[in-house]
Amino acid sequence: MSPAADEAPPDPSSAVAVTVDLGETSRRELNRMLHQAQAGSFRVLNPRGAHGLACGLDARVSVEIEGSVGYYCAGMNKQGSVSVNGNAGTGLAENIMSGTVRITGSATMSAGATGCGGLVVIEGDAGSRCGISMKGVDIVVGGSVGHMSAFMAQAGNLVVLGDAGADLGDSIYEARLFVRGDVESLGSDAVQKEMRPEHVAALARLLDAAGMEADPGDFRRYGSARGLYNFHIDDIDAELSARREAS
Amino acid sequence: MCGIVGLFLKTEKYRPRLGQFTARMLHEMRERGPDSAGFAVYDRGAEGLTRITVLAEGARPDWGAAAAGLEAVLGAEVSVRPVRDHAVLETAGDGRRARRWLIENDPDIDVLSYGSQIEIYKSVGDPDLVVERYDLESRSGTHAIAHTRMATESAVTTNGSHPFATGADTCLVHNGSLSNHNQLRARLERVGESFQTENDSEVAAGFLSWRLREGDTLTEALERALAELDGFFTFAIGIADGFAILRDPIACKPAVVAETDDWVAMSSEYRAIAQLPDVGHAEVWTPAPGRIYTWSLAA
């Protein structure tokens, strides 16, 4: 079924998925339909690399896209569950707030960029800058991630079952990075950290949520050396006396 | 921005439809570059003959006079096939010499390409109209490289449009911007390269032409390019019997590649590749930063 503008809107609360064929329905119409839905599931056919599919969801709808998508798929997702049977272009699930985004293939640049919450699962590889400036999202990558991943990452978890490219975690704040394979190089202020029991437990939960089979014991953890922070605890006495003098 | 497409046909199967597929891919890249567009097509050509594609934008070209002038210099016959404001000159004479003579002696003419297999067409305007005007869809051949331009470093003019070619059967399209092109242009001019624009991408094409002329393999030339070109780039490159892709080590400019038994395609965005037959069975990947990818017909 591919609803035309003059037909009654589909009933997304029905148990059967509403099928939208992008060969016949415009992307704008699809996104409008998804934004109006409060629940239910949708199946999208013939995406053919189109940009901006299933962006800005803000309800518990589930969207399954059959084929590869272009830029910013599932961007700004809130509550929704979006899965892609294919690959994704730049900015998959960028600025995700909550909900789940999963792709069976690989994603190019900046997957999960600036994400504040929710879960992004990439079964294949992610390209450069995966999780750049992530602010609370959890990202699980079945393959490898490209260079400059988790650049300026602030919060959340990046789990990589494969390898990480150059400059992993450059200028990182407080996000946690778990890598099973090789790390080509760590970025400025990123360091390897001890894998304590709470990290093993957290990683096991993330792998489970992502449906990935892996032993948490095989991973190494990376995070911030906190050397680039503006504020240094060692400088606190000097800072306080300067303030006293100024007041 | 800018949009890039490249299509390299490994087998005979789709070669009669090279132009048709390239046009479809280019259509998808219109939004990335609505200013102007251009394309290079490679076919088998005719043994011993060089084709020189020339453009006389806004001028009333006297192709006959240009051909007669060339014949005197080359000591060989020159035939003319006009295509709107372009023309293809064909000769058994020396193509490099012909290019230089035309640049130096006919200010109304831009030389877009020369070689036994390449023809280049370019124009300002909607990429779909450029495709139609120069009848890309009817072209057959082995590979094609095309570009839609959103100008950032120089004016919206036809001669600022891609592809750029300065050497035999060698052309390049570029998404990005180079920062050391003025210095490189001066250096290349000293070793015999000649340029027709102020464009940074033309310098990259000249750099490759120079290295290939010096005997480098395509891979060696691209290794040198990685070491010496400073700036942002995703390049798609064509030579007589090969195709290559190169991204700078930062790799901000997008690229995606897909390959089947019959073809290799690259583009700035997957939606261009999604137009090709059997794409569902293609291996699709993002070319890694600073890594050289080449394909050859000779293999």
Amino-to-carboxy terminus distance of chain A? 72 Å
Compute the separation of the termini of chain B in Å. 34 Å
Overall average pLDDT of chain A: 92
Instruction: Write down how many β-strands of chain B occur, each being a DSSP E stretch of 2 or more residues.
Output: 16
Helix content bin of chain B: 25-40%
* Radius of gyration of chain B, CA atoms, in whole angstroms: 18 Å
Number of self-contained structural domains of chain A: 1
Task: Write structural notes for this entry.
The complex is a heterodimer of chains A (247) and B (299). Chain A has helices spanning 27-36, 197-210, 236-246, and strands at residues 18-21, 41-45, 62-66, 81-84, 100-103, 119-122, 135-141, 155-160, 176-179, 190-193, 220-224. Chain A has 247 residues and is of the alpha/beta class. Chain A has an eleven-stranded mixed β-sheet, with helices on one face. The radius of gyration of chain A is 20 Å and the shape is globular. The N and C termini of chain A lie far apart (72 Å). Chain B contains eight helices and 16 strands. Chain B is globular. Chain B folds into two domains: 3-44 and 125-296, Glutamine Phosphoribosylpyrophosphate, subunit 1, domain 1; 47-116, Alpha-Beta Plaits (2-Layer Sandwich), CATH 3.30.70.
List strands and helices in order, with pairings:
The complex is a heterodimer of chains A (247) and B (299).
Chain A (H helix, E strand, L loop, with lengths): L17 E4 L5 H10 L4 E5 L16 E5 L14 E4 L15 E4 L15 E4 L12 E7 L13 E6 L15 E4 L10 E4 L3 H14 L9 E5 L11 H11 L1
Parallel strand pairs in A: 1-2, 2-3, 3-4, 4-5, 5-6, 6-7, 7-8, 8-9
Antiparallel strand pairs in A: 9-11, 10-11
Chain B lengths: L2 E7 L8 H11 L7 E7 L7 E6 L7 H12 L3 E6 L2 E6 L3 H11 L4 E6 L2 E7 L2 H7 L9 E7 L14 E4 L2 E9 L2 H10 L9 H14 L4 H11 L2 E9 L2 E6 L8 E4 L3 E5 L2 H4 L9 E3 L7 E4 L3
Antiparallel strand pairs in B: 1-8, 1-14, 2-7, 2-8, 3-5, 3-6, 4-5, 9-10, 10-11, 11-12, 12-16, 13-14, 13-15
